[in-house]
Amino acid sequence: MSVFGRFLDGLTQYFVDPIARIFGPSDDNYPAIGLQPFEGEPFAQRVEVSDGL
């Protein structure tokens, strides 16, 4: 393989690998625990937020 061919192959892999990772299937190993219900009390008071500027 020529120098140009190796360069082109490396350049192609440089762009294809991240794109394949972004658009490929997820590789997360999160446990399948489902939706967890909220068991607390909602905060009933109004909170004022200042800009601090």
How would you describe this structure to a colleague?
The chain has 53 residues and is an all-alpha fold. It has a domain at 1-25. It contains one helix and no strands.
Summary keywords:
mainly alpha; 53 residues
Count of helix runs: 1
What integer value in Å does the Rg equal?
Answer: 25 Å
Strand content: under 5%
Helix content, binned percent: 25-40%
How many individual β-strands? Answer: 0
The best one-word shape is elongated
Structural class from helices and strands? mainly alpha
What secondary-structure arrangement, pairings included, does this model have?
Blueprint: H1 3-23
Quick description:
By secondary structure, the chain is mostly helical. It has one helix at 3-23. It is elongated.
